[in-house]
Design brief:
Layout lengths: L1 H20 L1 H19 L10 E4 L3 H4 E3 L3 H8 L3 H31 L4 H12 L6 H11 L5 H8 L11 H29 L3 H9 L4 H25 L7 H7 L5 H4 L2 H11 L3 H30 L5
Antiparallel strand pairs: 1-2
Helix pairs in contact: 4-15, 5-9, 5-11, 6-9, 7-12, 9-11, 11-15, 12-14, 14-15
């Protein structure tokens, strides 16, 4: 017992000395930890209202318990099937269409001989990432409007103009490919970092053996960035039900509502507009639980297939 206490005391002293010696690093870490605790963990306490009939007067802990009432209400609601199909469909479309472009851009930039041209292309493709969502949707609305440049070209070809922003069939395509345009350069940076970690000796050996650029891409580049792509895919699968509502809400209108209405926009309407806080919290909690389960399952499958996983 005395030996254990002595060892524990030594460990405490060693940790304390380490903190004092590297106090600048611990101070640097303090800011993100504080952010996570205040804005991510403390709000979890409020999730309890998903199981209550929340009342401003009674407060979070004084409101009456109702169990799974709000969850059952959501599952039985006529919007449930539509919301799930729209959300999953949009997420899968986004994942499938968004995998290849950043990889292709990163590989292309990796083989550009002119550094000036490569840096210019990288900067031009990276810039849209810093454009706000409101501005992106505003640009889309202007370009794709009935009197916009796209429809002017269509009219010049003798074809009837298309109401792009009001067509339910075109909503997902416009949403996904505008997102690819905006985020492609940013996502390519991640793959460029993975390509930069490849040993130059591999390329030199491949060139000596007479491997063409296509063979170097197939046998060196793609296998090297595959673990990074798998990790990003796992993270994307964990967000299948958690699409941000901002861009969808800005693009949404009464004409395309049948395909643009997703869980996040529905939570916005019932939570902030209709002030059904317990009901919207229950839906949000359902999203989080399903996303966590999907993340664990996809991570387990990935680990069993190619030994690449988050943990």
């Amino acid at each position: 017992m005395k030996f254990r206490k002595a060892e524990l005391k030594k460990d405490v002293n060693r940790i304390r000395k380490g903190i004092i010696r590297h106090w600048q690093l611990y101070l640097l870490v303090l800011a993100p930890i504080t952010y996570l605790v205040i804005f991510k963990y403390i709000p979890l306490i409020g999730s309890v209202i998903a199981f209550k009939d929340y009342s401003f007067v009674k407060g979070v802990f004084g409101s009456d318990w109702v169990g799974l009432k709000h969850f059952i209400r959501f599952f039985k609601s006529p919007q449930f099937k539509t919301l799930m199909l729209n959300t999953i469909g949009l997420s899968l479309y986004q994942i499938i269409a968004g995998v290849a472009p950043p990889i292709l851009l990163a590989i292309a930039l990796n083989y550009v001989r002119s550094k000036i041209f490569g840096k210019t292309v990288q900067m031009v493709t990276y810039m849209p990432y810093f454009i706000s969502t409101v501005l992106v949707v505003g640009i889309l609305s202007q370009i794709l409007s009935l009197g916009g440049p796209v429809n002017q070209i269509i009219k010049a070809m003798g074809v009837e103009p298309v109401h792009f922003m009001g067509d339910p069939k075109l909503f997902r395509t416009i949403y996904v490919f505008s997102g690819i345009w905006q985020n492609n350069g940013y996502n390519a940076v991640i793959y460029l970092a993975a390509l930069a970690a490849i040993s130059p000796e591999l390329y030199e050996a491949a060139i000596i053996d007479g491997a063409s650029i296509w063979k170097r891409i197939y046998y060196i580049d793609i296998p090297s960035i595959l673990p990074t792509a798998v990790i990003l895919l796992i993270l994307a699968c964990g967000r299948i039900l958690s699409i941000g509502y901002e861009k969808v809400l800005l693009m949404q209108n009464n004409l395309n509502l049948q395909t643009s209405d997703i869980i996040s926009t529905y939570v916005y309407r019932v939570g902030l507009i209709s002030m059904q806080y317990s009901y919207s919290t229950a839906i949000g909690l359902f999203q989080s639980v399903v996303s966590f389960i999907l993340l664990v399952l996809v991570n387990k499958v990935s680990r069993s297939l190619n030994e690449t996983s988050l943990w």
